């Protein structure tokens, strides 16, 4: 079985600091890591390989230091890495196109695994967007998977309901963090990862002239001041109003 | 045209308010979308909450699959010549918008906490980095696809006297290779 895992290098959001005068986040000099839920996708890929055999290829769109992150995934159990350096400016349009071309270059595949969202941006756009671009079925928010020779069955976490979906291959699956506990590689595996291939390439070598459709105008800081709002009505009404204002602030998802 | 779609009508009501504002500024019409069986009561409700017109993609499909719904939306976008697509940001809406953006190969922004026009371009804000920052982003191309969660905008007051056209159309949509086996309550 040929499995592809899409993994993103992100800054460790828990280590992020905020400039006290501008309230803007400081993004430089923060430790980098593989987005947590992408590691769950990796773990699931290894489990599938353990049962059915095959090959796991990890693809990352990121700067050259992301090579170190790919090595972690190779140590966990991936067979090969692909690292595509993005152009100066990129968005989900650019990234998904680069992923699609890199995947087509790999050739035949059965399952593409992604995390349901990255922990830095938390859009959850890359997976289903890639599935649309490749024209293959998608199974999102999978909280468990059962893979057979010619099909996969997944329970999707839809909040209030669990939806059980089945698909033939090829299929793109995004997983939630509940699906498994990613393994920690042994020292031997970490050393062994050094001999596994990482194929580095530039965006231009895959497709030139990919320009973003969305531009970031500004990254605004968030004021952490107290809002001092007191809800004095009866409990039910107050809770309702509190939920409404939290939702308006974008604190709830 | 500006399109608004959600499978949750409460979110649709909220989005119609903002959609109405944006459509007016662009000098375009606001169209609410229904995918499923024609529902004249719901269509009139959408008009009462601010839609100029309602477009019903008639289908017997009653279970949501992003693979199929994205094709309906793609057809409606082409049919109506729409360039602004606002989708309700629940779990279905997010994967639907993302897949649609992939199919059309256009820009998409998920979970916007504000949308507005700046220099006539659709501009959005969303919370990133675990709530530590707000990304202000702008589309430099169209169609533009955005999703907005519930309760970000308030609905307009309902006006039952508002009138609008309801268009119904069937599209030929290829069935997805995926199959929904069962839907059950989530175990906690």
In words, what does this structure look like?
- The complex is a heterodimer of chains A (253) and B (188).
- Chain A is an alpha/beta fold and 253 residues long.
- Helix content of chain A is 30%, strand content 30%.
- In chain A, helix 2 (66-76) links the parallel strand 6 and strand 7 (80-85).
- The relative contact order of chain A is 0.18.
- The mean pLDDT of chain A is 94.
- Chain B is of the alpha/beta class and 188 residues long.
- Chain B has a domain at 2-112 and 143-153 and 164-170: HUPs (Rossmann fold, 3-Layer(aba) Sandwich), CATH 3.40.50.
- Chain B has helices at 9-26, 40-48, 66-80, 91-104; strands at residues 2-5, 30-36, 53-58, 84-88, 107-109, 114-118, 121-128, 133-139, 144-148, 165-170, 179-185.
- In chain B, the strands form two sheets. Chain B has a seven-stranded parallel β-sheet with strand order 5-9-4-1-2-3-10, with helices on both faces.
- The longest helix of chain B has 18 residues, at 9-26.
- Chain B is globular.
- The mean pLDDT of chain B is 96.
Helical fraction of chain B: 25-40%
CATH topology of the domain at 2-112 and 143-153 and 164-170 in chain B: Rossmann fold
| CATH class descriptor name of the domain at 2-112 and 143-153 and 164-170 in chain B | Alpha Beta
**Total number of β-strand segments of chain B?**
11
The protein's oligomeric status is: heterodimer
Class from helix and strand fractions of chain B: alpha/beta
Residue windows where pLDDT falls under 50 for at least 5 positions of chain A? none
What is the level-2 CATH architecture name of the largest domain in chain A?
3-Layer(aba) Sandwich
Quickly give the CATH architecture of the domain at 2-112 and 143-153 and 164-170 in chain B. Answer: 3-Layer(aba) Sandwich
Sheet/helix structural class of chain A = alpha/beta
* Number of separate structural domains of chain A: 2
- Order of SSEs of chain B: EHEHEHEHEEEEEEE
CATH class of the largest domain in chain A: Alpha Beta
Percent strand of chain A equals 25-35%
* Strand content bin of chain B: 25-35%
């Amino acid at each position: 079985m040929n499995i592809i895992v899409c993994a993103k290098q992100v800054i460790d959001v828990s280590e992020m600091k905020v400039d006290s005068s501008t309230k803007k986040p400081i993004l430089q000099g923060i430790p980098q890591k593989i987005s947590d839920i992408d590691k769950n996708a990796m773990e699931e890929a290894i489990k599938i390989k353990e049962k059915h055999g095959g090959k796991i290829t990890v693809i990352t769109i990121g700067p050259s230091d992301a090579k170190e992150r790919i090595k972690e995934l190779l140590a966990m159990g991936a067979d090969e890495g692909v690292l595509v350096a993005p152009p100066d400016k990129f968005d989900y349009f650019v990234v998904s196109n680069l992923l699609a071309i890199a995947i087509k270059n790999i050739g035949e595949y059965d399952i593409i695994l992604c995390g349901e969202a990255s922990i830095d941006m938390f859009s959850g756009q890359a997976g289903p967007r890639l599935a649309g671009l490749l024209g293959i079925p998608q199974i999102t928010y999978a909280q468990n998977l059962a893979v057979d020779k010619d099909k996969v069955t997944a329970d999707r976490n839809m909040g209030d309901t669990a939806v059980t979906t089945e698909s033939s291959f090829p299929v793109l699956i995004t997983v939630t963090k509940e699906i498994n506990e990613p393994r920690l590689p042994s020292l031997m595996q970490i050393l062994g990862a050094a001999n596994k291939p990482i194929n580095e390439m530039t965006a231009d070598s895959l497709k030139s002239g990919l320009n973003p459709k969305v531009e970031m105008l500004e990254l605004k800081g968030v004021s952490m001041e107290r809002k001092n709002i007191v809800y004095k009505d009866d409990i039910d009404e107050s809770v309702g109003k509190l939920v409404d204002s939290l939702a308006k602030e974008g604190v709830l998802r | 045209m500006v399109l608004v779609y959600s499978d949750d009508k409460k979110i649709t009501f909220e989005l119609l308010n903002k959609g109405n504002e944006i459509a007016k500024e662009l000098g375009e019409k606001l169209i609410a979308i229904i995918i499923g069986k024609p529902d004249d009561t719901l269509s009139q409700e959408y008009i009462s909450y601010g839609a100029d017109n309602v477009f019903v993609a008639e289908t017997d499909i009653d279970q949501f699959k992003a693979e199929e719904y994205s094709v309906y939306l793609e057809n409606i976008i082409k049919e109506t010549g729409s360039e602004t697509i606002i989708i309700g940001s629940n779990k279905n809406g997010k994967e639907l918008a993302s897949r649609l953006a992939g199919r059309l190969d256009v820009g998409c922004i998920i979970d916007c906490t504000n949308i507005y026009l700046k220099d006539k371009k659709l501009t959005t804000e969303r919370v990133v980095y675990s709530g530590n920052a707000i990304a202000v982003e702008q589309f430099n191309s169209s169609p533009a696809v955005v999703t907005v969660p519930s309760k970000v905008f308030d609905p307009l007051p309902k006006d039952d006297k508002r009138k609008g056209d309801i268009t119904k159309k069937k599209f030929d949509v290829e069935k997805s290779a995926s199959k929904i086996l069962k839907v059950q309550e989530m175990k906690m």
